[in-house]
Amino acid sequence: MHFHHLHCRPARRAALLTIALAGIALAHTAPTRADTYPERPIRIVVPFPAGGYSDALARIIALDMGKSFGQAAMVDNRPGAGGNIGADLVAKSPADGYTLVMGTIGTHAINATLYQKVPFDGVKDFAPVAFVADAETVLVVNPSVPARTPKELIALAKAKPNEMTFASGGAGTTGHLAGELFKAATGTSMTHIPYKGNAPALTDLVAGQVSLSFATLQPALPFIKAGKLVPLATLGKTRSPALPNVPTLEESGMRGFEVRNWTGILAPAGTPSVVLKKLSDEIDKVMRTEEVQAKLQNEGLKYTPMGPAVFSQFVKSETDKWAKVVKAAGVQAD
């Protein structure tokens, strides 16, 4: 724009000034709007059916947000395509903090490589808010399997290539990929047997139809406590509070072997940082309460505090890590 035009037309100059001032005023009202957030109900989309652990945690968080914020927070279950349908809905929602997703290792790390066509980018289309919890993973064997340590299991698998079978809740699930990661890391060959969900996989494992499983701790715990399954190791960085006497795979000599079946809250990319911080602080407060901590321990879940910046880095590193495993295993969901 050539400014000499401003000298010749007073009316136009006034109009331009008004527009400029309006622009400045607008720039100043945007942050205050974020400061008064939330001014209406918040929706947390859970991309899975009701009843799972991410759904249960979303409901606890929603209830507490409602009390703290003085605005209702609702859980909206939108299952399908391994969580991709619900995640896509949030990716394409306004970036105002009123539509959030309970993302997981599936929707925001594994699916990018597992599915040929994912309608969103798990990293670029989201603003991570806060990590919520890990559902811990445990390596369990049927008691008839003559191994009581990961080393003994590896020796057994090497002695009988492909004879050992491992059950998972389905192709491309954490339990399946953990098994692929284990095979690659130990140079063993075992046969994967996919089931439609964790429950049938564990039922067959208890019945002795399969040898072992990299199981989600929560559904496996009752069988472990009843002596129907034997835990050899947990797959977190530190021991599980639910199984304090069971070593981690890392302690058992397998370096860098960590499988975190995680879930966390993410907003659409471009959500104001003031809003992200407000949400993140609130989630952290809820997760630290004695009541929630007791519930987590009881269910074999673990909370790690991560705000927007740390959680963003985590999502990126998990996406890269699992892309390698999925490619190496040659797994495809569609």
Q: Can you offer a commentary on this structure?
A:
By secondary structure, the chain is an alpha/beta fold. It folds into 2 domains: 42-133 and 261-329, Bordetella uptake gene, domain 1 (D-Maltodextrin-Binding Protein, domain 2, 3-Layer(aba) Sandwich), CATH 3.40.190; 137-234, 3-Layer(aba) Sandwich (D-Maltodextrin-Binding Protein, domain 2), CATH 3.40.190.10. It is 46% helix and 18% strand. It has helices at residues 5-8, 10-35, 53-69, 84-91, 105-114, 150-159, 174-186, 198-206, 217-225, 273-288, 290-299, 308-329, and strands at residues 42-46, 73-77, 99-104, 126-135, 137-141, 165-168, 191-194, 212-216, 230-234, 261-268, 301-302. The strands form 2 sheets. Strands 2-1-3-10-4-11 form a 6-stranded mixed β-sheet, with helices on both faces. The chain has a 5-stranded mixed β-sheet with strand order 7-6-8-5-9. Helix 3 crosses helix 10 and helix 5 packs parallel to helix 12. The radius of gyration is 24 Å and the shape is globular.
Percent of sequence in beta strands: 15-25%
Binned, the helix content reads 40-55%
Query: What's the number of helices?
Result: 12
* Strand order in the sheet with the most strands: 2-1-3-10-4-11
Mean pLDDT: 90
CATH class wording of the largest domain: Alpha Beta
Strand-and-helix sequence, N→C?
Answer: HHEHEHEHEEHEHEHEHEEHHEH
How many strand segments? Answer: 11
> Could you describe the largest sheet, including whether it forms a barrel?
6 strands, mixed
Number of domains: 2
Query: Runs with pLDDT <50, length 5+?
Result: 1-7
